[in-house]
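Journal club side-thread
Mid-discussion, someone asked how the predicted structure for our own chain would compare to the paper's figures. Pasting it here so we can look after the session.
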Amino acid sequence: MLAILHLILSLAVTLLYAFLGTVPSGFLGVLAVAGVFLGALIAWIAVFLLFLIVAMVGFRDADPRRMFKHRVMIAFAEYYYCLILRVRLVVTGLENLPKHNLFVVYSNHIEACDPMYLKMVFRRYPVAFISKEVLFKQFLVGDLLRSVGNIPISPVADRSALNSILEGIKRVKGGQPYAIYPEGRRTYSNNIIPFKPGSFKLATKAEADIIPLAIYDVHEVNRKGRILPCTVRLHVFPAITAQDYAGIDTVELAKQVETIVGAKMEEFKRLYPTPSHKA
């Protein structure tokens, strides 16, 4: 809907210029009209980005469990990360989406834009993220992240990182679902690295459901020289409930979820091979 609105408004401005403005003849005229259309399109995108910033920063103190800001973010994600970047998002396992907000998503981590695709799938939930501390130090970005409930975490396992997890546990118990990347860093590939057991305390201490998730081929979006559209695949697994993991320590739980996600990634590789797999 947002994309259609932008196109209609851009076409309207372009036609207005073509009928009322001074348009050069020949090839220069074609370039002028195309330039007006592109300029109008960029202007509408800029207006939407300004609205996004105002919505996030202007209401930074609003309860992050309310869906308004999350819907704005999802609208931007669908427009930019799917339409502009020409990405087709294929999701399986939608029947496994939770029926409540007491859950934590555990996913492999390929690229910085992974959270945007996850948000599109969990569009009915105010999912926030445990994110790298350095992101919160960037101008405006930190305000945007905090406004929807994201929590910064230090890359070092120190007191600050522990406090971030404790804050996350409190919020999960209060009805704020979270997502965390247990690998601890991006892989830039479809290969996963060991899941860190400490990240699972966010779910176990809150007695929340664990939702394993596999995301595939996100690095293909940024592949150098890509011209054609690409496909990103995402699979939602059935929840591992508090009853299911009762009596299991976080080391074993991390291995269990890593195995579940890893098996799906290998299946994706067999079914949907890409050139990067040969590297």
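Post-session note: The radius of gyration is 21 Å.
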